[in-house]
Design a protein that fits this description.
This protein is α/β, with parallel strands linked by helices. It has one domain: P-loop containing nucleotide triphosphate hydrolases (Rossmann fold), CATH 3.40.50.300. The chain contains five helices and seven strands; from the N terminus they run ββαββαβαβαβα. Strands 1-3-4-2-5-6-7 form a seven-stranded mixed β-sheet, sandwiched between helices. β3 and β4 form a beta hairpin. It is globular, with a radius of gyration of 16 Å. The two termini are 26 Å apart.
């Protein structure tokens, strides 16, 4: 199901996990790697392809939600404001949203738009984890250096860091860890 209104999303009768990040962070590729489905989420060389809240039912147990990227400059200010409005509503009001996976490009320094988005999530009490993408594009030294720098910058604002996952949609590293996290979180949800 796809739409721009959280009240028209599927019935909130299963746990839900949203995936979001800046455009071109590799979100669609990661979703496809997680689901072992090459074209579930549309991949494109053109950033900003996802413009709706897209729900995918996984094993009749939980929803994977593909959200539009934030911080994309090639859409009009009006469209960007609409994105921000319906994304805020969805993230803030969706009662069965257990966690949001915030995707971050492991090759880049902390980006202002990512930091502001995570700060907004924290201020609004919306649970999230950090997912570093494209780790296959870095050698171990550069990857380690980038992650230490990210931790340092985060700890200037945060008392402690949220959980982190390190992924590559090319070699599927990190996908099992994410799916295990979802499974364990679902078990806690099911007990309530």
């Amino acid at each position: 199901m796809s739409n721009t209104d959280y009240t028209k999303c599927p019935e909130p009768n299963m746990p839900e996990y949203a995936f979001i990040g800046r455009s071109n962070v590799g979100k669609s590729s990661l979703i496809n790697a997680l689901t072992n489905h090459k074209s579930l989420a549309k991949t494109s060389g053109k950033p900003g392809k996802t413009q709706l809240i897209n729900h995918f039912k996984i094993n009749n147990e939980w929803y994977l939600v593909d959200l539009p990227g934030y911080g994309y400059a090639r859409v009009s200010k009006t469209v960007r404001a609409e994105f921000q409005s319906f994304l805020r509503d969805y993230l803030d009001k969706r009662e069965n949203l257990l966690c949001t996976f915030v995707l971050l490009d492991s090759r880049l320094d902390p980006q202002k738009v990512d930091m502001e988005f995570m700060e907004w999530m924290g201020e609004n009490g919306i649970p999230f984890v950090m997912v570093f993408t494209k780790t296959d594009k870095l050698n171990q030294t550069k990857f380690s250096k980038n992650m230490k720098h990210y931790e340092k910058v985060m700890l200037e604002i945060w008392e402690e860091l949220p959980p982190r996952f390190y992924t590559s949609s090319v070699n599927k590293s990190g996908t099992e860890e994410i799916l295990t996290f979802v499974e364990q979180t679902n078990e806690v949800y099911d007990k309530k």
